[in-house]
Amino acid sequence: MTIPWWAERLREIRHEQGRTLEDVGSEAGMSRHYLSTIETGRHIPKIDTLENIAKALGGNIYIVVKGTDVIDHRTRSV
Fold first, then answer.
1. For the stretch 31-51, what's the b/e string if a residue is b when 16 or more beta carbons lie within 10 angstroms of its beta carbon?
2. Which of 27, 29, 45, 63 has the smallest number of Cβ neighbours within 10 A?
3. Are 13 and 57 in contact (CB under 8 A)?
4. Cα 40 versus chain centre, distance
5. Which residues contact 68 (CB under 8 A, 6 or more apart)?
6. 10 Å Cβ neighbour count for 77?
7. 13 pLDDT exceeds 70?
8. How far from the centroid of its chain's Cα atoms is residue 62's Cα?
9. Distance from C-alpha of 45 to C-alpha of 28, rounded to nearest angstrom
10. In angstroms, rounded to a whole number, what is the distance separating the alpha carbons of residues 53 and 65?
11. Do 54 and 67 contact (CB within 8 A), yes or no?
């Protein structure tokens, strides 16, 4: 099974921060098991779920999709 790029990005960010599935899952309002199924591509979450995970990781959805949480409002680019 191929893991989606966004799922790999979630896991990469979590590992960079030295955080556990349990820690991030709890902060995002989900179980460790559910977060694991998202990170391994076995479950495709709704966008609001991805937003909750990103917030638990200290950013917003852009840290997952673009690798940054900064938006340049003058150019409307990430």
1. eeebbbebbeeeeebeeebbb
2. 29
3. yes
4. 12
5. 62, 78
6. 8
7. yes
8. 9
9. 13
10. 13
11. no
